[in-house]
Design brief:
The complex is a heterodimer of chains A (about 700) and B (about 550). Chain A is globular and about 80 Å long. Chain A has about 700 residues and is of the alpha/beta class. In chain A, the strands form nine sheets. In chain A, strands 13, 14, 15, 20, 23, 24, 29, 32, 35 and 36 form a ten-stranded mixed beta sheet that branches. Chain A folds into five domains: about 110 residues, Nucleotidyltransferase, domain 5 (2-Layer Sandwich); about 130 residues, Rossmann fold (3-Layer(aba) Sandwich), CATH 3.40.50; about 230 residues, conserved archaeal protein q6m145 (Nucleotidyltransferase, domain 5); about 110 residues, Dna Ligase, domain 1 (2-Layer Sandwich); about 70 residues, no CATH class. In chain A, helix 5 links the parallel strand 9 and strand 10. In chain A, helix 4 packs across helix 5, helix 10 crosses helix 11 and helix 11 crosses helix 12. Chain A has 16 helices and 36 strands. Chain B is an alpha+beta fold. In chain B, the strands form four sheets. Chain B has a seven-stranded antiparallel beta sheet, with helices on both faces. Chain B has two domains: about 220 residues, Beta-Lactamase; about 180 residues, no CATH class. In chain B, helix 1 packs antiparallel against helix 5 and helix 7 crosses helix 10. The N and C termini of chain B lie far apart (about 50 Å). Chain B is about 30% helix and about 20% strand. The interface between A and B is large, with 70 and 92 residues.
Chain lengths: ~700, ~550
């Protein structure tokens, strides 16, 4: 076995991780090169390969995740794109939901459609909800539209017709005619990109795919060619938003599936750790410079969804972005990062974010011209971060600058000194993250009691013990390599593809033959994508979204293996009722049950990692000194021991209050916390009072 | 900055305040997910709040629509009074759908649950949702008295000391259509209050508190100060406005006299047209909700709703005007007129806030409520009920164009055409921006939309029209032009009435042209680039 490389291109840094033949990791961070993102990857790989003495020919696999597609959508840097749609529905992506995502803002600005009205064309055709043709496809009109598309020199065309998830014939016919006339144009049809009911979401998704497709295809093939030129003989794979691997060809055809692939890597990283420790219910908590992301992981599998929103414009508010209907690892993201700015509102309340000081000018404590107080500044004021132990070597923290910023912009407005104001900032940001975690759990019908927390990303270990206390969780894991967690996660991902399609039926008149056919087709589709990457044994998981007749929200119901027969409906109703009770606490009698959307996920069978033995404390570590730190458990400043994480050995225990420092992050323990270093370098934190 | 110096306690109170709102959001979210009522699940037409022991609202979930902003806030004192303080026990659950004690029509059910710490009453949770049916004629304006609009539940106990009132459940079950869904939604409201109650007790425990008194004083104090600061932006004095709307079959005048004093704002609706014979009348509590919403959105958009933020906004009207319906006036579709109260009152204070107040918009929603029935009396087909929410354009803002096909002041969302067609025998043939419908101005009014709908599969529709701004378009402001008026007609061009029950025959289509918003500022001042873009995009032709 040779080397495997994971490459995560983020907004600021490109992380490269190399998995060595013995299973250990080496990593490097280089600056992302925005104009030509492949340059950063290639340079980073060259640097670390040089350093480790690795020849490109010895690399077995390169796995890549990128925010390039996401950024192209956020920054509107995509192709010149047209949308072709059903006559009468030209404006679906512009009128959206007809709602306002912020009820109390008279000057609200709704997100502009990805494809402007002048670039939206209609063709006479109509299919009904059962897939029957009401108005035949008008070939003459299609020919005229294609002539207009040619004349106006579009680079990409999205095709979205009503009810095409049920009958894709018209969309395919239009595509075939278009490709026959304009063979070089990039075409995406909604029945292939996202065959899910609800036209706004589906049309927007197909537009997003078309919009980023030329850019992504060219980038991916450039990267692949350049890797080959440099001697790589191994395949390149992409991580997708659902947390699986796909080939370059699949990624180039469906680039919208790459959106949010970086955070997906983080969730896989956490899921893998959960499996190693045999923790079946885990809250994954990732905090960086501008946001915090929280995901639920059960049975070592991250929670997934069929639709999500990218490019939120206003305070990460639901509805302020654009919906993308593809399978995705579900997480909640809020504007709470180290760089998030604290302010005081008209009610005299401390508010955090969503504005971030970013890396330039950065928090006030960086002393690079930033004047606004940030979460990082509060952590400096409270003694959690300190100049002598701050990881980044090119930054000298200035506690005085942090104190001034906090006092001027928060404390003075509230009659508090900088210390009390910093306590307020820390408490409010912790409470915001706690509330986000709770709401996320409720949305998924879960109760967080009994969950363990896994914290990674540069900011999370600073706040994790407080969150753990607020949420009433008993265990916190802080794995090593937390700063490059997503890239490590890429290397743990299976080859996987999830195919989803809407097909409406009811348990009281269940069309089991049609359902069998839908599931069979979805299985073939998903498997064909997975087979582009692997010959391994496969696992197939099937799911259906169901609800009571009259409701608007579906809940996911897992299906057993095997085909349905005429008795299947009753069984399915029973499974739904049980799932509904789990979600909402009670079922409802005598109501018809509807099945709306079906999905099949095919993944390469992965060996579950060997379960690690938990190490109990065998040696109490006193640490390398003490420093005053505010401890929210005690509610006062205490003397905290300072411990260098790299000096810890398995079995070493640290009693709080303590600060455990390493180059990428700092783990803070309150007075009732105790941390024990495990055999793989993970810190396991519990409360002393629970042992 | 007006707040007083404060202590570590203030930080703790802020955390608790945020926590209370988060708990209520959770409660509202669960309701949305489990609700059967279309207007709840698609439109967030619901509310959840926590109250102190006197029935003053301490916090409220931020939900989709302002109709419950202070209607529900005012409801809890009625519960305390009607049940009687001495008959409030742990394990009790109360409910009502009284339009004058709840939220303005029988379709809204408010459920209230007392919270005890030990034997001591410390407060209440209340939640309100629009249910699928309440019996009577069904949802529509055609009733002449409230008795025709459905069953009225006076304030009473749904459960006492944990014991469900089986008689009441039985009566309800026999008086409403879709009774499983209605009873299911009431259980949902009660369950969400129960979740809130438990979360509140946990939170009090965590913060080592035994009641809400100190916290609610803190919240009211902070909010009162901020509200009064915001109100100071309007010069003291009297402001007046009138507005014409279509009404049921004759144009109505809505009139307001706004008095701004040091203590708050008072809206008096004297001069408003008399009551209608039909169910478009508005209980004053509902008019107050849309008045308060309009003032808060203009003056203090970031303030949370609670007793102290709502307290300064008061209303009055002589009996007999359409904004002060009295028992037993019919009030079923009170939103059709009630939604205009926001634009009416914003128009009144526009001279004081010229850089804030937008032009008038389409105002009331154009809900399409249809009963699909077999077109051939000899062919038996199951009846199907359909409901779509649709919005016209909003008024242009002082620095921005209006919003196209977007709800204001209501907070609802529309439903997917594909999802609607899954439910029943309906084909939505067209749902598109209505070109040239926004009022011209330096900033253009939001455009309306055109919708064509027809029955299919051997059905016809009986639909309850409740459309407005057909005779009386949205007016422009500061020199801006009016938005286009709405139109409603059959596909052969024959017009429909804008209110009341009518029929769309099999395989025909009804065409709705929704009104546009008014323009703001002189059209000749419009940026030539904006005009060019409007032309390129086909917004104007």
């Amino acid at each position: 076995m040779g080397y495997r490389i994971g490459a995560d291109v983020g907004g600021t840094f490109t992380d490269i991780v190399v998995e060595m033949p013995d299973g250990s990791f080496e990593s490097t961070k280089v600056l992302t090169t925005h104009g030509r993102p492949e340059q950063g990857i290639l340079d980073g790989i060259a640097a670390i390969a040089d350093q480790l003495g690795i020849a490109m020919a010895d690399v077995d696999q390169i796995i890549h995740g990128t925010t390039l597609a996401t950024n192209a959508l956020i920054e509107r840097r995509g192709a010149r794109t047209a949308l072709v749609t059903t006559e009468g529905f030209r404006d679906v992506i512009e009128t959206r939901t007809e709602g306002r995502f912020e009820q109390y803002d008279l000057n609200i600005v709704l997100p502009a459609p990805l494809v402007e009205r002048k670039d939206r064309f209609v063709v006479s055709e109509r299919i009904n909800a059962r897939g029957e043709v009401l108005v035949p496809f008008d070939e003459a009109a299609a020919t005229r539209t294609i002539a207009a598309l040619k004349e106006r020199e579009y680079e990409a065309v999205a095709v979205g017709f009503l009810h095409s998830y049920r009958n894709a014939d018209h969309e395919r016919r239009f595509r075939d005619m278009l490709v026959a006339t304009l063979p070089d144009i990039a075409v995406s049809i909604s029945a292939e990109v996202s065959p899910q009911m609800r036209e706004f979401e589906r049309f927007n998704t197909v537009c997003a795919n078309a919009y980023v497709q030329p850019l992504m295809a060219s980038y991916l093939f450039r990267l692949q060619d350049e890797l080959r030129r440099r001697g790589a003989r191994c395949p390149l794979y992409l991580i997708h938003s659902g947390g699986g691997l796909v080939s370059v060809e699949t990624a180039a055809a469906f680039p919208v599936r790459l959106v949010e692939s970086g955070p997906a890597g983080g969730a896989i990283f956490a899921a893998d750790l959960a499996a190693r420790y045999g923790r079946k219910r885990v809250l994954s908590y990732d905090m960086g410079g501008t946001t915090a992301k929280i995901a639920l992981i059960e049975d070592y599998t991250p929670q997934t969804a069929k639709t999500f929103e990218v490019a939120r414009t206003t305070r990460f508010k639901k509805g302020s972005g654009m919906p993308i209907s593809i399978p995705v690892i579900e997480m909640i993201e809020i504007g709470a990062g180290g760089g998030s700015i604290a302010s005081v509102d008209t009610l005299g309340q401390i508010r955090i974010g969503p504005h971030s000081a970013g890396s330039e000018p950065g928090p006030a404590a960086y002393n690079r011209g930033g004047e606004a107080p940030t979460v990082t500044d509060a952590n400096v004021q409270l003694g959690r971060l300190h100049p002598s132990t701050f990881g980044a070597t090119d930054i000298t923290l200035s506690p005085a600058c942090a104190a001034t910023a906090i006092r001027t912009h928060v404390g003075d407005h509230l009659g508090m000194d900088e210390q009390l104001a910093a306590v307020g900032i820390a408490e409010v940001v912790d409470e915001n993250m706690t509330n986000a975690a709770r709401v996320h759990a409720v949305e998924n019908g879960k109760d967080l009691s009994g969950f363990a927390m896994i914290a990674f990303g540069g900011g999370a270990p600073l706040h994790a013990t407080r969150l753990m206390d607020k949420l009433g969780l008993d265990e916190l894991f802080v794995p090593p390599g937390a700063g490059v967690g997503s890239a490590i996660g890429f290397l743990r991902a299976p080859f996987a593809y999830e195919a989803v399609r809407s097909f409406y039926t009811r348990t009281d008149r269940f069309d089991y033959r049609a359902v069998n056919q839908v599931l069979a087709e979805l299985t073939v589709e998903a498997e064909s994508f997975v087979r582009l990457g692997t010959d391994a044994d496969l696992v197939v998981e099937r799911q259906v979204s169901m609800r009571y007749k009259g409701q608007g929200w579906e809940i996911p119901v897992r299906l057993d293996a095997g085909a349905f027969d005429e008795f299947a409906a009753e069984n399915l109703a029973g499974v739904f009722t049980k799932a509904y009770e789990e979600f909402f606490g009670r079922a409802i009698d005598d109501l018809a049950i509807e099945a709306v959307s079906w999905s099949v996920r095919v993944a390469s069978l992965q060996q579950r990692p060997t379960t690690l033995q938990m190490l109990a404390a065998s040696n109490m570590v006193v640490g390398d000194g003490q420093r005053p730190m505010y401890d929210p458990v005690a509610g006062e400043v205490v003397d905290a021991r300072v411990v260098e994480r790299p000096t810890l050995q398995p079995g070493d225990a640290v009693n709080g209050p303590a600060i455990i420092v390493e180059s990428q992050t700092t783990t803070v323990l309150g007075s009732h916390h105790v941390a024990v270093l495990q055999s793989d370098g993970t810190l396991l934190v519990t409360r002393g009072d629970t042992q | 900055m007006t707040t007083k110096p404060t202590s570590a306690k203030a930080v703790e109170f802020q955390i608790m305040w945020n926590r209370l709102i988060a708990v209520l959001e959770e409660q509202a979210l669960t309701l949305v997910r489990t609700a059967f009522s279309t207007s709840v699940r698609e439109a967030g037409d619901l509310s959840a709040g926590v109250f102190d022991r006197e029935g003053r609202m301490v916090a409220q979930a931020v939900t989709g629509t302002p109709g419950h902003v202070n209607t529900m806030a005012a409801a809890v004192p009625h519960f305390i009074n009607d049940i009687g303080p001495e008959r409030i026990y742990p394990g009790d659950v109360y409910l009502t759908n009284d339009p004058w004690k709840g939220t303005g029509h029988l379709h809204d059910i408010t459920v209230t649950t007392p919270v005890f710490v030990g034997e001591t009453l410390i407060g209440f949770f209340a939640s309100t949702a629009h249910v699928v049916d309440v019996g009577g004629r069904g949802y529509g304006p055609d009733a002449r008295e409230i008795y025709e609009e459905g069953i009225r539940i006076p304030i009473m106990k749904w459960a006492e000391r944990g014991e469900l009132n089986g008689d009441l459940v039985n009566i309800l079950r026999n008086n409403v259509r879709e009774s499983d869904q209605v009873i299911g939604d009431i259980h949902g409201l009660a369950a969400s209050n129960e979740t809130g109650r438990r979360r509140l007790l946990d939170t009090l425990d965590e913060f080592k508190m035994t009641d809400l008194e100190e916290l609610s004083e803190f919240i009211f104090d902070r909010t009162r100060t901020a509200t009064m600061t915001a109100l100071a932006a309007v010069d003291k004095g009297v402001y007046r406005n009138t507005m014409q709307v279509d009404g049921y079959n004759e144009t109505l005048t809505l009139a307001v006299e706004l008095t701004v004093t040091d203590d708050g704002m008072h809206a008096d609706f004297t001069g408003t047209s008399p009551l209608s014979a039909f169910g478009i009348n508005v209980p004053i509590t509902y008019a107050q909700a849309y008045f308060t919403y309009g003032m808060l959105v203009a003056l203090a958009p970031e303030l949370p709703n609670n007793y102290a933020s709502l307290f300064p906004f008061t209303v009055s009207a002589p009996p007999g005007v359409i904004l002060n319906a009295q028992d037993p006036d019919p009030v079923s579709v009170r939103h059709v007129i009630g939604h205009f109260v926001t634009d009416l009152c914003l128009g009144a204070i526009a001279p004081a806030l010229p850089a804030i107040v937008p032009a008038e918009g389409a105002g009331a929603l154009w809900n399409f409520q249809a009963s699909a029935r077999s077109a051939d009396p000899d062919v038996l087909l199951p009846p199907v009920e359909l409901l779509m929410f649709n919005s016209g354009g909003t008024g242009a803002r002082p620095t921005l164009d209006g919003l196209t096909a977007t709800a204001f002041p209501s907070g609802v969302m529309t439903m997917s055409a594909e999802a609607t067609e899954q439910i029943g025998p309906i084909i939505i043939w067209r749902k598109e921006i209505r070109e040239n419908s926004g009022g011209a101005g330096e900033f253009r009014g939001g455009l309306g939309q055109i919708i064509e709908i027809g029955p299919t599969d051997g059905y016809l529709f009986e639909f309850s029209a409740m459309f407005d701004r057909v005779e009386n378009p949205a007016r422009g402001r500061a020199g801006g032009d009016d938005g286009a008026a709405g139109r409603v007609y059959l596909d052969d061009g024959s017009p429909f009435a804008t209110k009341g029950k009518q029929t769309v025959p099999a395989d025909r289509r009804v065409i709705l042209e929704l009104p546009g918003g008014g323009g703001f500022g002189n059209p000749t001042d419009r940026d030539p680039q904006a005009i060019a873009n409007d032309t390129i995009q086909g917004y104007i032709t």
